[in-house]
Amino acid sequence: xxKKILIDCDPGIDDAxxxxxxxxxxxxxxxxxxxxxxxxxxxxxxxxxLRLRDFYGMDVPVARGAGQPLVREPKTAGDVHGNTGLGxxxxxxxxxxxxxxxxxxxxxxxxxxxxxxxxxxxVGPLTNIALALRKEPKIAEWAGExxxxxGSYTRGNTNxxxxxxxLADPEGAAVAFNAPWRTVMIGLDLTYQARANAAVRARFADxxxxxxxxxxxxxxxxxxxxxxxxxGPAIHDACAIAYVIDPGLFQTVSxxxxxxxxxxFTAGMTVTDFGAPSDVHNADVxxxxxxxxxxxxxxxxxxxxxxxxxx
Length: 311
Hints:
GO terms for molecular function: purine nucleosidase activity. This protein is of the alpha/beta class. The chain has one domain (3-307): Inosine-uridine Nucleoside N-ribohydrolase, Chain A, CATH 3.90.245.10. The chain contains 13 helices and 9 strands. β2 (28-35), α2 and β3 (62-64) form a beta-alpha-beta unit.
């Protein structure tokens, strides 16, 4: 039986590629997509989610969420993802409609209806998750697992200390990590092992419209960013989806993770203590990826998507 997944995201180039992986995997049943401000403004992340749903042919609700972090001004990444979030990709205007629910209520109601069955997977800033926890703390019991793309135990990518999703809403991230569930942290130390280099991209050459209209323009734009030029872009968000599909592709280490909210130079840092007493550990931190098996998983899923794109 396919595993149910609810994806909270901020599309975003790598979000677009992550959604394709989720949709194309026979091992996943996507029960919903919620959007948050992050890579670009909420109007764009939501519009992109709707366009991607129509382009892929996904039959899932999309619910719009928080348009600003808990206490800070929004911080976006248009320099990495383009002003509207999908780089050089131009998809048709969406025909499908948004859910009538706010993302926070959608998350709560969806988890409540199937306790223990759904992987709540967040690949953007954790604002929606924090708001849902504040409104209904029981979601920490109802989620089958909580997987995020975010953080790092060695570095940042937006400043020297912090990964973007954590820096975009440190207070929201702190609420999520402090909830009584165990967070699976798929951070930069792991995602930088998932580089879409020339050999990887060759695997997508026969995917027709999916390759020409989405994958190639996404990766060309993403790969032009200065930090990616040597090895190809890291497809961060797809790693979190892959973990939900097959945790065996990853090595994880138990740790205590706290999010810095006060530091002048370190706000958003995921302070990771592998040596903390085990009774205070709150996270499984991904350290090593089987990259060859990961890209096989991705290529197989993309092949499924390409074969079933709507006209």
